Amino acid sequence: GLLALCTATSSVAADAGEPEKIIMGGSSLGIRDSSKRDTEITFNVALSELLKSHDANLSVVVFDSTQDLYAAFDKDQIHGIFGTPLEFIQRENKMKPALMAIHYKNVPLKQSLIALIRSSDNIKSIKDLRGKRLSMGNTQDMEKLFLNTLLLENQESELDSFFSERLVPKNTNTGIMDVFFGRSDITLVRESEYKTAVELNPQLGKKLAILAESEPFLVLVAGAKTTMPEKSHQAAMQSLIDLSSTEKGKQLMRIIHAESFEGVSNKDLDNVRELAKRYKTLKAKAS
Q1: DSSP state of 78
Q2: Ordered mean pLDDT values, 10 residues apiece, the chain (287 residues)
Q3: Structure confidence at residue 55 (pLDDT)
Q4: What is the distance between the alpha carbons of residues 188 and 179, in angstroms, rounded to a whole number?
Q5: Burial of 284 by CB count in 10 Å (0-12 exposed, 13-18 middle, 19+ buried)?
Q6: How far apart, in whole angstroms, are the C-alpha atoms of residue 173 and residue 190?
Q7: Which residues, including other chains, have CB under 8 Å from residue 53's CB and lie 6 or more apart?
Q8: Nearest-CA neighbor of 215 among 287, 98, 108?
Q9: Going by C-beta distance under 8 Å and a sequence separation of 6 or more, which residues neighbour residue 42?
C-alpha cells in the first residue's frame, strides 16, 4: 500500500512560473479496504484546494502493486513512499529523515494488532490453532509478519502450512464476521477496527476473545526520497498536515477513517524493524 511522491517538471511549466508537479501514487496495501477510485477522487479534490496556497501541484494515482511501485522508486521515476511501515523500511535508506504518519480517529497514533478468536472455542494458545482456518486479507502485511513471528516463536510452521485453510475476506470487517459466524477460527485486525466493530455490534465483544496482541505500531507512513527538492517536500508535507483543517479535507479523512497526518521520527519505526529482524532470525533458525 504505497503512495509515492514523484516530482516531474517540464521546462515549459518552469518558464511559465507554474509550481512543479508532485505525483503521489498508492498500491493496495496502503489504501487497504478503500477503493482505488474513492482514494484518487477524494485525495485529488481535497489536495487541489489546499495546494494553491502552498505553491505546489500535487495529485494522487493508485498503482496495482507494490512491486511496480518499488521498481519505479528504484529507477528514480518516483520520489517518495507512502505505505505500511513494512513497505517503508524496505526503502528507508534512500529517504529523508522527516516522516509523516496517519492518525486514525479516536485511537492513539500507534496501534496494536490483535488476533481474534471465539471465546467458546477453548483455544488457550497459538498451538491450539494448528489445522484450523484463518481469515486474512492480502493487504495485511504487518498482521502477516506479526502472526508468522508468533508461530515461529512457538516452534510452529508459518501460516501457509500451519492453517488448513486461509479465507481472504473482502475487508477486515468481513474477517471479524468470519470468526463470529464460525466460517474461520482466527483473524487479525487493528485495535481500532475491532473497537469500531464492537461499538456497532456489542454481540461481537461478547462472543470474541483476544488471543494475542502486538505492541503498538504506526499504521501508515509517508516520506520523500533524499533526491526530492526541499521546496516540493515541504509543500507536500504541509499539505498533508493541513488536510484535516479544511472541510473537504475532513470529508476525505472520514472516508479513510482518519483524523490527521502528523510528523513522526525515524525512531517511531524501531519496533517494526525489530519485529522484521526477529522474524528473519527465527525463520533462519527454523530452516
Answers
A1: -
A2: 43 48 69 72 68 66 80 83 88 90 87 96 94 94 96 97 96 94 97 91 95 95 86 82 79 75 93 97 95
A3: 63
A4: 10
A5: exposed
A6: 11
A7: none
A8: 108
A9: 251, 252, 255
Q: Which amino acid is at 278?
A: R
DSSP codes joined into one string, 117-173: EEGGG---SGGGGTT-EEE--TT-HHHHHHHHHHHHHTT---HHHHSSEEE--SSHH
Q: How far apart are CA 87 and CA 66, in angstroms?
A: 8
Q: Cβ distance 228 to 7 under 8 Å?
A: yes
Which pLDDT does position 198 carry in this prediction? Answer: 94
Q: Taking the CB of residue 115, how many other CB atoms lie within 10 A of it?
A: 23
What is the rounded CA–CA span in Å between residue 203 and residue 186?
17
* DSSP H or E stretch at residue 208: strand 208-213
- For the chain, report the end-to-end CA distance as a whole number of angstroms: 29
The contacts of residue 117 (CB under 8 Å, 6+ apart) are 123, 129, 179, 185, 186, 208, 209, 211
Predicted pLDDT at 93: 92
Cell numbers representing residue 110 in the block:
500507534
Q: Give the separation between CA 286 and CA 266, rounded to whole angstroms.
A: 31
Instruction: Give the position of cell 504518519.
Output: 101
Strand 208-213 with 57-62, pairing:
unpaired
What angle do helix axes 36-51 and 247-255 make, rounded to 10 degrees? Answer: 160
State the pLDDT at residue 145: 97
Chain center to CA of 40:
16
Within 8 A by CB and 6+ apart from 72, the residues are: 4, 6, 25, 63, 78
d(CA 86, CA 25): 17
For residues 141 and 264, give the distance between their C-alpha atoms in angstroms, rounded to a whole number: 21
